[in-house]
Write a structure and sequence with these properties.
Length: 258
Amino acid sequence: MNKGRVQLSVRNGIASILIDRPEARNAMTWAMYEELGRICDEIAERADVRVTTFRGAGGDAFVAGTDIEQFKTFEGGDDGLAYERVIDRRIGQIEGLPMPTVAILDGWTIGGGLAIAAACDFRIAAPTASFGVPIARTLGNCLSMANTARVVAAFGVARAKRMLLLADLLPAREAYDCGFLAEIADAGALDDAADKLCARLEKLAPVTQRVSKEAIRRVVAETVPQGDDLVAACYGSADFKIGVSAFLDKQKPAWSGS
C-alpha cells in the first residue's frame, strides 16, 4: 500500500507542493508531516520562489486529516501533547513561509487538512469542497491552541463552535461567504483560477508581502494563550481511546464522558 508522499516541483517562480496519498484521501502520516516540514525549510531559503501552492492528489480530497492508525500507540496525555507540538511546528512552517501561499482545495478539507489550508494566505476551492474538524463525532481528541486560534480567526467564533462542538462540515459557499475562500471555481477551472491568482501575487512587491505576512502572523500569535492542560486532558481521556478504537473498527463510538 502507498504510504504517501509530499512532493515539490518549482517552475517559473511557483513552488507546487503536492500531498500525494489519494487512496486514503491524502491523510497524513508522520513521515508525510516530516517531509512537508523539510520541503518548507527548503523553499523558505529559495530566492527564486515567489509563490507556493498546496494541493492534494486525486481530486476527492485536499487532506482528510491525520492517519488515525497512528494514534493506536498513544498511551496518555503526554503523547497527545507531543503530537500536537509536532503539528504546530509543521503548520507553523507553512504559516511562516516568506512568500504568499495558495491552497487549492478539492473535496474534503478536514482536521489537519483544514489547519494546512488555514495556514495558507489564500484559498481557492471547487464547489464540492467541504470544511470541518468533526473530532467531536469521530475521535474525541482536540486541536492545539494555535490551530483553534486559526479556525476562530478564519471562520469566527460561531462557526468554530459549530465545527468543533457540533462536528458540522461547512460547504464551500459558506466558507466563501465568511471570507475563508478567495474564490470558488468549478473543478475544471480550478487550475486556471489558481494560475491567475499566482500571477497577480508574483507581480507585486515581495518585501512588502513578506513583511506584511509576518506582521499579521505576529498580531494573531499574540492572542494565543497556553493550553497544554486542555490538550493533555483530551488525549488522556477514556473517550479518546474509545474514539480511536471505534473509528478503526468502523463502529459508532459510545462516549463515556471521562
